[in-house]
Amino acid sequence: MIKKMNATGFLAVLAVLTVLSACVSQPVTRNVIDDIGGILDINRFQYYVSSDIRLTATERVREPNVDRSGTASVKETAFRDIIVINKSTMGVLMDSRTDEDGLMILEICFEEKPSDSDKRILFKQERAGSEQKFYVFYTDLRRRILKYGDVEYSLETKKGQRPFLEIKINRKEIENERIRKVKGRKVEY
After folding, report:
1. Are 96 and 42 spatial neighbours (Cβ–Cβ below 8 Å)?
2. Distance (Å, rounded) from C-alpha 161 to C-alpha 164?
3. Terminal CA-to-CA distance of the chain, rounded, Å?
4. Which parts of the chain register pLDDT below 50?
5. Closest among 143, 100, 153 to 122, alpha carbons compared
6. What pLDDT, on the 0 to 100 scale, is given for residue 8?
7. Which among 91, 81, 95 has a CA at the least distance from the CA of 150?
8. Which of 7, 25, 56, 172 has the fewest CB atoms below 10 angstroms from its CB?
9. Measured between alpha carbons, how far is 46 from 108 in angstroms, rounded to an integer?
10. Domain residues of the chain, as ranges?
11. Chain center to CA of 41
12. Which helix H or strand E contains 36, and what residues bound it?
């Protein structure tokens, strides 16, 4: 006959709650978009770029002149407009569309003034697929030229890599465990 043990033979129960939380930067892909809320929520994401970007537009002005003595001179001046967008600079989605090949294009504005909303960087999926990143879209890939507002800029990065779009995701994983230690039962006659 089996009999219940006395109070010293009770079950010990220990509950463990583990919470792992981390905020990580993750490349934007179609899978990430779908995982976080779908295409309807992409305008609510806070966007970042994967590396520091330096945009440079150069305008050259040439001023020829002939003085009273008949000596010709040419004065050439270069004006450079340099825009720095650091990796930590926040951007917002201004527009999105799909091109003729079915690849998604996101237009991101990093400028703080609403009057500069036309200054956008286009990011496009490199090729079809749900795991493809959204890379900077150049109007001239060989020269690394892109349109920023109504001006063409050349893009430079420190390591020469092609920047892609990222978002920060706060991931929280909760694990619950219940650990029991039992003492066992004796057979009694």
Report:
1. yes
2. 9
3. 6
4. 1-17, 19-20
5. 153
6. 41
7. 81
8. 7
9. 10
10. 29-166
11. 15
12. helix 30-36
